[in-house]
Design goal:
single chain, globular, alpha+beta, 38% strand, seven-stranded mixed β-sheet, 4 helices, 206 residues
Length: 206
């Protein structure tokens, strides 16, 4: 994992092809690092403790209906052993303020699945998650040889000295049905159109 992250760091400059509006540099490696640190915290401090400590105040998760994460997490006790996960790819908005990561998870009982996390920078520039979800799979997704990252093309230029509004180069939706099924979609601006880069469909629990 460390070697893969190193390769991503070396390639980060090549991923930032367009100059972003005022704000943070759109660096996929920082999102990968945040995801890895999130998993490490879960192993050291407990699964739900890690979720609570890295969540934004308005973060949401699904149980299976959508809930405010911090309110729900207050009532949860950490399991004896945490789920383990690792990111495969990260997508970052042109202004560097929003990101999405996705990858694989494994539970202590051997169950496998995938996750998608939406990240947003706080006022100090730290990544906090604002949406987290996933689903179980019969067979784990193939693990990529290298971690990768992509940066969206800018939709808006600099606005003088004023902070620009969100550039909307990376957008996401989470639609939940009454039966608990849901669809999480992430789209990235390519310069001509939005490309769907994540499209997760979770069936209702039987």
């Amino acid at each position: 994992m460390t070697a893969r992250l190193g390769l991503l760091l070396l390639g980060a400059a090549a991923l930032v092809a367009a100059k972003p509006p005022l704000g943070f540099q759109p660096d996929p490696s920082s999102v990968i690092a945040a995801e890895i640190a999130f998993n490490r915290l879960a192993q050291e401090k407990g699964q739900w403790t890690a979720f609570a400590q890295t969540a934004a105040d308005d973060a949401v998760m699904f149980v299976p209906q959508k809930v405010v994460a911090k309110e729900w997490l207050k009532k949860q006790a950490n399991p004896a052993a945490s789920v383990r996960w690792s990111p495969s790819v990260a997508y970052v908005s042109c202004d560097g303020n929003l990101a999405a990561s996705t990858g694989n998870w494994t539970r202590p009982d051997g169950a496998v699945g995938y996750f998608t996390t939406i990240w947003r920078r706080d006022k100090k520039g730290r990544w906090q998650w604002i949406m987290d979800h996933g689903d179980r799979l019969a067979t784990a997704r193939a693990t990529p040889e290298f971690l990768s990252g992509k940066v969206a093309t800018c939709k808006r230029g600099p606005q003088g000295d004023a902070p620009p509004p969100p550039d909307e180069s990376l957008i996401w939706t989470a639609d939940v049905a009454t039966d608990g099924g849901r669809q999480v979609t992430v789209r990235m601006w390519t310069g001509a159109a939005y490309e769907t880069v994540i499209d997760d469909k979770v069936r209702a629990e039987s």
